[in-house]
Structure formats: structure tokens, C-alpha cells
Amino acid sequence: MTRVKRGYIARRRRAKMRLFASTFREAHSRLTRTIMQQKTRALVSAHRDRGRQKRDFRRLWITRINAVTREDKVSYSYSRLIHDLHKRQLLLNRKILAQIAISNKNCLYMISNENMISNEIIKLN
Fold this sequence. Notes:
Blueprint: H1 9-20, H2 32-69, H3 78-87, H4 94-103, H5 105-124
Helix pairs in contact: 1-2, 2-4, 4-5
Protein name: Large ribosomal subunit protein bL20c
Subcellular location: Plastid, Chloroplast
GO molecular function: rRNA binding; structural constituent of ribosome
């Protein structure tokens, strides 16, 4: 029987895997089976943590807004502020509100006081 030379497909596939794992340490960057396990694990973690990152940022924004709204000039809770904004159909998401709260508190105070004034007018009518 004649000798069969193997092609380059498998070698090319393993080289691509090694490029992905080049920043891993020790056997995790050298051994093919270990590279595959670590690659799978890394991709699973990345997928999971993208959702977790969204959650963490939303929590951070809510905390920042709540901290500013409970200060002296506004003096009511985050949930009440969001409820009033929703009632008046002001389309400001939490990320934008948190940026306003950090950079320009007076602007947030104006937004919240408008809500309070409009609620008083609605109650009087």
C-alpha cells in the first residue's frame, strides 16, 4: 500500500485554537484537548457575564439616582420619581438619569420638582 500524507486541515484548525488560547498559561495554551476545554469554558463565562454586566450597571444607575433623590432638595424616593416620570410620559432611561444625577444635580432637581408640581396640580383638580 502506498503511503498517505495527511492534509493540513486539522493542523490549521489546531493553529486557530492555539491563537485563541495564546494568552492562557502553561498547559492551557499548549495542549490541544486542554485548549478546547478552556476555550469552551471561557466562551461560556463571557456569555454569562454579558448578562450579569447589564444587571450590575442597572443596579449602579438605580443606586446613584436614589442617592441623589433622597438628598435635601428632592427628598423623596427613587421609586416615586420613576413612577412620576412614567405617569408624565417622560422618556428618560435610568442610564441618562444617573448621568444627569452625577454631572448636573440641579437639572435632576428641576425634573423632579416639575413632577411634584404637576402632581399637586392634578390633585387639586
